[in-house]
Amino acid sequence: MSATIQTIFDKSQDGRKGIALPPLDVEVDAKIDSAFLREKKARLPQVSEFDVVRHFTNLSNKNMSIDKNFYPLGSCTMKYNPKIAERVANQDGYLNLHPHVITNNFNADVQGSLETIDMLEKSLCEVTGMSAFTTTPQAGAHGEMLGVMMIDKYHKSKGEKRKYIIVPDSSHGTNPATASMVGYEVITIKSDENGAIDFEAFKEKMSHDVAAVMLTVPNTLGMYNKRIKDLCEVAHAYDALMYYDGANMNAIMGVARPGDIGFDVIHINVHKTFATPHGGGGPGSGPVGVNDKLKPFLPDLGIKKEGDLYEFTKGGENSIGKISPFFGNYGISLRAITYMTVLGSDGMKDASSKAVLNANYLRVRLKDYFDVPFGGMCMHECVLSAKTLAKKGVSAMDIAKYLLDFGLHSPTVYFPLIVKEAIMIEPTETENKETIDYFCDTMINAVKLADENPEEFQHYPKTLGVCRPDDTRAIKELDVKFHSQ
Amino acid sequence: MTYTPHTDEQVKQMLDVIGLEKESDLFSSVPSELQVHGIDLPKGLDEFSTFEKFKTLAAKNVTNKTIFMGGGYYDHIVPSAVDALAGRSEFYTSYTPYQAEASQGTLQVLYEYQSMICELSGMDVSNASMYDGASALAESALMAVRISRKRNKILIDGGINPTYIKVVETYLSFRDIEFEIIDVENFKTNRQAVLDKIDESVAGYLFQNPNFFGTMDDFTAIIEKLHEHKALAVISAYPISLGLLKDPGSMGADIFCADGQCLGNYMNFGGPSFGMIATKEKYIRDLPGRIIGRTLDKDQNEIFVLTMQAREQHIRRHRATSNICSNQNLIAVRSTIFMSLLGEEGLENMAKLCFSKATYLKEELSKLDGIEVLNKDDSFNEFVISTPLNSDDLLLKLRDKGFYAGINLTNIDEKLTNKVLVSVTEKRTKEQMDALIAAIGEVL
Predict the structure, then answer these.
(1) Which pTM does this prediction carry?
(2) 0.90 surpassed by complex ipTM
């Protein structure tokens, strides 16, 4: 048996139309120079509107999603995305606002949106303890890049060009990739037996050539580093700056603030902590917060209030410049401030508390069935390992694929890289106990199956119509676009 | 309002299982001297009060003007089917398709997206989207430097959207990549000046067609010279124009990038939009971002997957082609739906409508005393006019009469005194254009 896929191109029929455009209501007689014209049409599919609706509706059914499934991808914070945020953001007053209105200095016409940006920046300052925020980065990694650029400018403003950025071996891949993208070399520090950055190794590597240290807190093992303040002090003694990767902010809202601890710069992934939809992989928004040290380096554009009017501001003389033409993914930032408004101070603290409760409950329920690389309490996510199961021939990926047949999206597997056969589970606060119990029961059933019939795992998932892609073939026989037969 | 479903009884049960007495014990690993007690923000609101608050704020934005502003963001049609389909939560509440079997919907849409971008651009391979047109151009410049191996210089045509140029400058300056901006002449690429700058030190030349001022051009001679010197041609284009204008692939361009807002998306005060990058097959390993491929599963069924992942940060870490992780997936999904509705004929017709309506407005504006259209003969759907009045005053008065008549170029480049960039899309009617002309007549 083998099934071929019908793409929208396969459904095309010459001459079929899917749209009626507004009429041509002017008479003109102008031609474009033939040297500028294309010779061959762009062969977009010719389908009806209903063909399009049925095709994409059917495709949507082939996705697992938060609204349909428990989706415990570690490090991704797949919490419920409240519908109110969509309703707010889909109002005409926000959707149809042209950004160049501010180029013409018609600030009076965009007061509502400037105010929402200001609200978000101020709220994020309060949650994180930083003194200023910018919403221009369009994703977490974009925010990281901005953060490291500001760090670079900070050192340059003191007449220094430093060479290295320190990251722990448990970090997200974006941290070292960002450091390289901004022209730095990476020093990787190993984790100690508790999963924390090795403090002695850290001290040893620290020097005046180190521009910054990028840390995820809690780290990607779901652990809070008790010596976090000491790390900041060591780095600051060398005037190296402390970068806080806020990917895991969902664990500590209203509990601890990076700014108070001594971090100089932080990015937030609003699609994680502040419940904006993940959209199948984006758009996100990655606001960056700084303390007073880095304020002069903030990017173009910013916001200020003069009297009763909000205005946009251009970056100052030390600004790193622009990383986005205007205010980044404004529509996503708007959803984030809507969510923060609904939750409020009490709701945010409650969210973090229940996220940690769910993760620890899940951890305790599963700890006797899987390897636990680092023991003790976790924060909002827990990392297990399928190391023992792997000896029976059942890998972390096999467990991941098994879960899919039970209506459960897989946890993150094989990350963090420092844990063999890692299974990284982040239940989030919006899941109820019944769902978490069902997940744990299914995980325990998987362990039983591994004892009884490990070969069986190769057949999972059985219910999704496809099973186990040949990734090597995908690269060797590269097929990345439709070819008409 | 919170969205946590826990009953008091369940919290107690769960704490019992964990072996804790009270909820605050959950944070025992956070040193007590670092703990704060609460957040100094208002308490949560119910949904209905929240909506009222943001409805009131939305009403402080003005969206009832007739828009003749473009500059990279366009007031195009957004068909109902785009909102309806992309508004399905199966699309918007899923995540990056790491588990292929659980993500065939998103993966197939992105494969179709890549196919459509290749059709539009005439290029061999496309990634699955970038943040926006500006960052796509910046990443294209980095890609050109990477492909050239040892070269470290980028030429930037002055006809590129100035906000994009600023973003490119930021990306390049932190990498110590040299760049030079070559000013336009009469809103058109200064071809001789560009040709004179091309030599063995240049990794790539970035240009835009139609350029920021709306001017169309033929870049054949420049691309030939670039290739003679093994430098890359990087074009940023306006996707709608590709319904009519020469595709970058046929021009011989090496990297194509663009902003996708115009393809079925709202202006959203500047974002989210998405960026495109497509290139020749031989450069696929240097592409940043996600790429979707079609392969077979273990039972020989066709299946879509993330592929060529060895370029990316989650595998390659500091040796990745870029640090990009999130794409602008949902917006790319919207545009795939939009392009499916348009079809090949719809795209061409949309381009014709934009061009024809802009032509009408150009001709009528030229009849006004004092107004001159400065790139009348070779502009697509945007063009530059000069005004005898201070352009700030003119635009403000027209605003008060109900029009965003264009972008004040003086505020972008002070040398462009009293120049305005006017844009026309298929949405503008003859009635609206006649009303604009009458309003300008009154103001002058």
Answers:
(1) 0.98
(2) yes
